[in-house]
Amino acid sequence: MPRRNRAKDWDAAEGLIDGKVTVDFTSLDGDAPPTISSSQLVDGWRQGLHPLGSGMWEVWGAYEVPLRRTPAGWKATGLAFFAWHSRRRLASPSPSQVMSTTC
Fold first, then answer.
1. Strand, helix or coil for residue 36
2. For 8, what's the count of Cα atoms within 13 Å in the CB-facing half-sphere?
């Protein structure tokens, strides 16, 4: 998935995700992990993976992607990010602000 996202190959990325996916970014914003459709997740990436204007936000961490074998191949059933460090300038939006405008 990360390679498809960097290339902005959204249709290919969506094809790697199960119909519903639980998205857990609680280490960033504390919100309960929602279960959303693969198209909602990818639409959020389409809208949200861009520079943050004059601000900067960096996050270090690790992803966990549970998989399920389907007749069409392996599909991601979840996406969790576990942050261990972040830094941002005050001009940057918070993770909640970014997610609320993209999902």
1. strand
2. 5
In the chain, the amino acid numbered 18 is: D
Fill in the DSSP letter of residue 103: -
Query: Per residue in 7-37, pLDDT tens?
Result: 778 889 999 999 999 999 999 888 899 999 9
Q: Which residues pair with 69 in a beta bridge?
A: 74
Contacts of 34 by beta carbon, 8 Å cutoff, 6+ apart? 22, 23, 103
pTM of the entire predicted model: 0.67
- Residue 83's H or E segment, with its range, is strand 73-88
Other residues' Cβ atoms within 10 Å of the Cβ of residue 95:
20
> Token pair of 34, please?
């929602």
Q: What pLDDT, on the 0 to 100 scale, is given for residue 14?
A: 92
Between 53 and 78, name the one with better pLDDT: 78
The CATH class that applies to domain 2-102 reads alpha beta
